[in-house]
Amino acid sequence: MAFARPEFAEARVSVTSAKSRNAAFPRIPLLDSLKGRSRKLRASFLSPTRAAGIPLLRELFGDSATSRAGVYAANDTAGSFHFITMRPFADKVQGRIGRYRIGFFPSEQRTVRTVASRNPDGFLEVTALNQDTPISEHFRLRDFLTHDQAAVWPKYLVLREPLVDKLELVLSELRRMGVPANRLRVMSGFRTPQYNQQGVGAGGRVQDSRHQYGDAADVYVVNGDRDWMSDLNRDGRVDTRDAQLLAQAAENVEREHPDLVGGVGIYKATTAHGPFVHIDVRGTRARWGAM
After folding, report:
1. What percent of the chain has pLDDT over 90?
2. Which domain holds residue 213?
3. With 50 labelled, which of 82, 95, 235, 272 sits at a CA distance of 20 to 30 A?
């Protein structure tokens, strides 16, 4: 299925006004079911196949919403919920979509051993205008973008809803533990394969990094004005002990929600960054660092 080009679609509709056209249509329950374990998701990422299977999308925005990449916002009493239709993976030609360099995923270059390492279903198209779209209570599309090609728009993003859901749960769990946590800063979210490859080597990134699949993020807690891990254990220092508290929150979330199991790794501070924690939803348990 080809997307209409060149314009990226952006549409907004009130669920309340749309509901009057068909009072029996279960709009509100469906929106509620998409808000995740955390109840804080504000977006659903839709491949063409998945989009075609959601009657609500077609009912509110028309047939083009299932075949045209875009952000479609439905407003209900709880605020906006965004359906974001992807561009299909096949739109990547010779490692690019338009001027944006993506590179080649591991499964395009060799046989992969796991289902989790298959090619993504598609790409979220992020523009200068939609980059601040809320995808959950505390995160925006731009939080997960690859850190390169700053002047190139649109950009393309691979991101999975379970990762965003897990990060929201981790933030809530920190607060439940009595740990001060205003927000989680994503230091590294999605990495295009071409960007990830630049750091592959001893002591660096791994060839099959989960960041390429949109289900991993390196994060730390920011409580003040400084963009750095905060003193979570309140001992007057910022070190791996603070990262251990963040990792423990992720551990607790996995214990309560086994369907969000994945990797948790602790990284020490360097001159370039403070300590941080890698969190992913790869589907199998993995631990590393000073856990």
Report:
1. 70
2. 161-288
3. 95
Residue the block writes with tokens 């907004």: 12
Name the 3-class secondary structure at 12. Answer: strand
Its pTM stands at: 0.90
CATH code of the domain containing 181 = 3.30.1380
Whether residues 26 and 165 share a domain: the answer is no
User: Measured between alpha carbons, how far is 243 from 249 in angstroms, rounded to an integer?
Assistant: 10
189 within domain boundaries: yes
Structural tokens at position 136: 């959950």
Count of structural domains, the chain: 2
130: Cβ–Cβ under 8 A, 6 or more apart, which residues?
8, 10, 71, 141
| Pairing between β-strand 9-14 and β-strand 43-46 as defined by DSSP bridges | unpaired
Residues in the chain: 291
Bridge partners of residue 101, in order along the sequence: 96
How far apart (Å, rounded) are the C-alpha atoms in residues 139 and 41?
A: 9
Residues 184 and 234 in one domain: yes
